[in-house]
Automatic annotation (TrEMBL):
Protein topology in the membrane: Multi-pass membrane protein
UniProt protein name: Major facilitator superfamily (MFS) profile domain-containing protein
Protein's cellular compartments: Membrane
Residues covered by the Major facilitator superfamily (MFS) profile domain: 38-454
Region (Disordered), start-end ranges: 1-20
Lineage start: Eukaryota, Metazoa, Chordata, Craniata, Vertebrata
Top-level taxonomic group: Eukaryota
Length: 486
């Protein structure tokens, strides 16, 4: 269906005492329209997500040179990435409320402006004493603005997919929007080492990331004209976000399957964020250069995007969310164990690169499917609330993991192979602990997670049932379905 179709449409209600004919069923299915404009909204979200990710991970691939330029320690450089997690935690609840209450358009435009100001403040925050230097405080302010924008952007894919895309394209749309964030991480892993050969080139790097943020802000402000299309693309889109925010939180806290997903998948998000943040510092101890660390980060993300594309298309066709995630989480845990071992070996570039590729292929591909599964197992709670809290869980655990891993490092008095620009730390124990944590939560998820697909059941009942089903009716009928399924 295209924009030339009628601007409004209502789902036809068929009386229970009148037998349905094939023509009536066909008419009912065709009553849901989609619009070409959905691809532009998706494009803006992808660009915005990508830009925010590059601002987030600007300094991690060149941590040693960044520490020299800003005259701070590596731990303080890590805080430039860690601030994203710290800021996102308290703001996430407000973001989920904003998405489900004020709508997609206001949320995205606000996120675009904050992201742009974050990129500009980092570059224009010149020191008064020396116009060629940028103080650490100004960079931190810019990072904080970008961190405030992150939940406004990263919580949006499930909401956009539900409001603008039909059921057979939702997982794919969510995958495309979600994977634009690791694409930004990929660009940061490539561009940062490419531009920064010496610490004096840090300002050039900052303007390289600020310029696209300005253009994307213009696109979002001018191009996004509404939060939703004129008519819904699916049965669930008609009632998207209908549960009040507080009531939705209460429903989630009583949902056993959702709480397991919240904890176990949140741990996976935390491990992957730690990996992206600390990769350069882990590899430089064994003599690997920043360029090679950037290549490994790029392979990690490229194979992750490929894996996500394959898995997203597969799940869109089969709707086997749970099986896909359980299998991929198991292979991800094995890949993480392998990385914790090969990262300790010098002169093993092929092995390190291969393990990073496998870790990305199996691990990153889980993210968009897990976001969709969080909506499926918690319906009729709003998409932003259910997916957003999973992300919050990952951020909270990431802060704890990074602090724990840094505390477990040991200073090395002598490391002849090291290419680290500053102090040299041993990451042997932290890597084994990280692999152990991921393996533990993977086992918990595989054993204990079971759920019916509530949104799909509600859509099937609304589309093929004898009458249009209200959200409250679906909500009341779901517990009995869940008991029967379990």
């Amino acid at each position: 269906m295209e924009d030339g179709a009628e601007s409004s449409s209502e789902v036809q209600t068929v009386s229970s005492d009148v037998p349905k004919t094939p023509n009536q069923e066909l008419k009912k299915l065709l009553s849901f329209k989609v619009y070409k404009r959905r691809w532009f909204v998706l494009l803006v979200l992808c660009l915005l997500n990508c830009s925010n990710a590059t601002i987030w991970l600007t300094f991690a691939p060149v941590a040693d040179e960044s520490a020299k330029f800003l005259n701070v320690t590596l731990e303080e450089i890590n805080w430039l990435s860690l601030v994203y997690m710290v800021v996102a935690i308290p703001l996430s609840f407000g973001t989920t409320w904003m998405l489900d209450t004020l709508g997609l358009r206001i949320t995205l435009i606000l996120g675009a402006w904050l992201n742009m100001f974050g990129g500009l403040v980092r570059f224009f925050g010149k020191s008064e004493e020396d116009q060629y230097t940028i103080p650490y405080a100004a960079v931190m302010v810019g990072q904080t603005l970008g961190a405030i924008a992150q939940p406004l952007i990263i919580f949006t894919p499930t909401k956009l997919a539900a409001l603008w895309f039909p059921d057979h394209q939702r997982a794919t749309a969510n995958m495309i929007a979600s994977m634009s964030n690791p694409l930004g991480l990929l660009l940061a892993n490539i561009i940062s080492p490419l531009i920064v050969r010496t610490s004096t080139q840090i300002p050039t790097l900052l303007i390289a990331y600020a310029a696209p943020a300005c253009f994307i802000c213009f696109l979002a402000t001018v191009g996004i004209r509404s939060s939703s299309p004129p008519t819904p693309p699916s049965a669930s889109a008609e009632s998207s976000g209908s549960e009040p925010f507080i009531q939705g939180i209460k429903l989630l806290l009583r949902n056993k399957a959702y709480l397991i997903l919240l904890l176990c998948f949140g741990s996976g998000v935390a491990v992957f964020t730690c990996f992206s943040t600390l990769l350069q510092q882990i590899l430089c101890v064994q003599g690997y250069t920043n360029d090679f660390a950037g290549v490994c980060g790029a392979l990690f993300i490229v194979f992750g995007i490929v894996g996500a594309a394959v898995l997203g298309l597969y799940v869109d066709k089969t709707k086997k969310f749970t099986e896909a995630i359980k299998i991929n989480m198991s292979f991800t845990a094995l890949s993480c164990i392998a990385f914790s071992l090969v990262s300790l070996l010098p002169h093993q570039k092929a092995a390190v690169a291969a393990v990073c590729s496998l870790l990305g292929f199996f691990g990153f591909s889980i993210y968009p499917v897990a976001m969709e599964l969080s909506v499926e197992c918690s319906y009729p709670v709003g998409e932003a609330t259910s997916a957003g809290l999973v992300f919050v869980s990952g951020q909270v655990q990431c802060v704890l993991y990074i602090l724990l891993l840094q505390a477990l490092t040991k200073r090395l008095a002598d490391s002849p192979l090291s290419t680290c620009g500053g102090e040299v730390l041993s990451w042997k124990v932290p890597m084994l602990v990280m692999a152990g944590l991921l393996s533990f939560f993977t086992c918990c998820f595989v054993i204990f997670f079971h759920t019916p697909y509530r949104r799909l059941l509600a859509e099937e009942q609304a589309t093929y049932g004898t009458k249009k089903t209200s959200v409250s009716t679906v909500s009341e009928s779901i517990p009995s379905v869940e008991k029967a399924t379990c």
